[in-house]
Amino acid sequence: MNPDNPVLHHCAGSRSTRVLWLLNEMEADFTLVEHDFPKGLRDPDFRALSPLGRVPVLVDGAQVLSESGAIIQYLCETRQRWDLMPQIGDALRPSWLQWLHFAETLAALPAALFQTEVSIPEEQRSEPMLELERRRLDKALKYLNKQLNGRSYLQGENFSAADIAVGYSLFFSSRFVSLEEYPDLAEWYGRLKRRPAFLKSFPAKFAA
Ligand SMILES: N[C@@H](CCC(=O)N[C@@H](CS)C(=O)NCC(=O)O)C(=O)O
């Protein structure tokens, strides 16, 4: 373990996969610390790094960051990966930032469905609430599908870290919807899934 390397705290299949995928795209040197979900996140040593007990956490020297969007931007900036994030002044920068943050607008919807599934006994679940979240998810996916029409990636012909952020949200969403209903979205996701860094970052059962 090289003490100069950034350390990523990760749970398989969780939001920290965004950061793992980015580090793999960058072919960066890093140390991966894996935790069991959710039990491992209650560990006091981990809680000292992440007060909410959530992943990802990236420790890079004195910096400790725990929002996947912030970590993506931080890594692209500090590693000067302008192929993955447009620089200030680039015409694509504002829409790149918009996509980076849209990723969490989208992920919040499957997260609500997932939390209900794992934390609330069936008889206590609110069907109207679940139906509302499903409709909001469908609306967001239809929007994304439309944006991807005629494009290989979110910003045109070139892959960027925005595709990683939103691509993970689509992975999460696909647990609850069939992508057949969103053909342009499905094609884009198929393109992402063929990337070697994707295959390295997701558990094999999800990469198929
Ligand atoms: N907005 C945060 C969300 C982080 C998050 O909620 N991570 C989930 C895993 S996908 C987690 O650690 N949940 C544990 C918990 O809520 O106790 C990000 O994008 O990094």
UniProtKB/TrEMBL annotation:
Residues of the GST C-terminal domain: 89-208
GO molecular function: transferase activity
Pfam family, one: GST_N_3
Ranges in a coiled coil: none
Key words of the record: Transferase
Ranges for domain GST N-terminal: 3-83
InterPro entries: Glutathione-S-Trfase_C-like, Glutathione-S-Trfase_C_sf, Glutathione_S-Trfase, Glutathione_S-Trfase_N, GST_C, Thioredoxin-like_sf
Domain of life where this protein originates: Bacteria
SUPFAM superfamilies per the UniProt record, alphabetical: GST C-terminal domain-like, Thioredoxin-like
Presence of the UniProt keyword Oxidoreductase in the record: no
Stored PANTHER family: GLUTATHIONE S-TRANSFERASE GSTA, GLUTATHIONE S-TRANSFERASE-RELATED
Name assigned to this protein: Glutathione S-transferase
Native organism: Marinobacterium mangrovicola
